[in-house]
Amino acid sequence: MTKGSFILLADLAKKCKCDTAELLHQAAKGNLKLSIPFYGIAPQRPYFLNPTNPDVDVPEIPEQLPDSGVFDLHIQDVVALVTHGQIAVDAIFSPCNVWAVSYEQPRVVSIDDIVIRTEEAASFNIAVDASDPMSLSERSRLLRLIGAMAILVAQQAKKYQAGGHPNASQIADAVGDLIDALPDSNSLGLVNTNVRTTISSGIELLTTLQK
User: Fold this and answer.
1) What are the CA-CA distances from residue 141 to residues 113, 133, 147, 149 (Å)?
2) Could you tell me if 118 and 15 are in contact, meaning their C-beta atoms sit under 8 angstroms apart?
């Protein structure tokens, strides 16, 4: 395996002009497969699990692992990584999830350890917005519009208020739930922290200009 066979999560984020939180969010939704590198070193005392019956070991173990040394994380591990920032991985899977290597001592994996296969990164990059940069005046207009919408939402329901003012966190949570419920939604860039920051910036910009 060579380093050319994968790209670091942070490097892909830079290439896509987003943050790692956004890529993790996409991975948790199943839109991006995350992996961890082993640099050709197999776990100690590996055994292969039967995917149809985890309680039955597959008797024959190949002399070499049938992969490049980059192993994919299960979607459950990805969700846990998004939630906790690190996970203890006790099994690694093939690209098609047809086999798994389990090892005695779980490996602690943090976000900094995550990589994406080169072919996976290239495929994901196709969906990245490559439109022309937004002008400052257009950005200001859209932010103020978002701020006005947030104020309207807060006026309609007290649960979106805090101290009589719009609660950006509550509104962002509701927006996130709505986006996740939409089938095939293009949620790139719409992680909770980005939405909350955008709402707060829009409200601040709108109310400042009104004074």
Assistant:
1) 39, 15, 10, 12
2) no
With a CB cutoff of 8 Å and minimum separation 6, the contacts of 144 are 202, 205, 206, 209
- How many H-runs (helices) and E-runs (strands) does the chain carry? 7, 10
Gap between the Cα atoms of 113 and 8, Å rounded: 8
Question: Over the stretch 103-151, which tens digit does the pLDDT of each residue have?
Answer: 566 778 888 889 998 888 888 865 555 556 678 888 898 999 999 999 9
In a 3-state reduction of DSSP, which class is residue 34?
coil
| CA nearest to 67, candidates 88, 90, 31, 97 | 97
What is the per-residue pLDDT across 58-94, written as a single tens digit (0 to 9) for each? 434 444 444 556 778 888 888 888 888 888 877 666 5
Please report which residue ranges of the chain form alpha helices under DSSP H: 9-16, 20-28, 75-84, 118-125, 136-156, 168-181, 192-210
Pull the structure tokens for residue 13. Answer: 């984020």
User: Hey, where are the domains in the chain?
Assistant: 3-125, 136-210
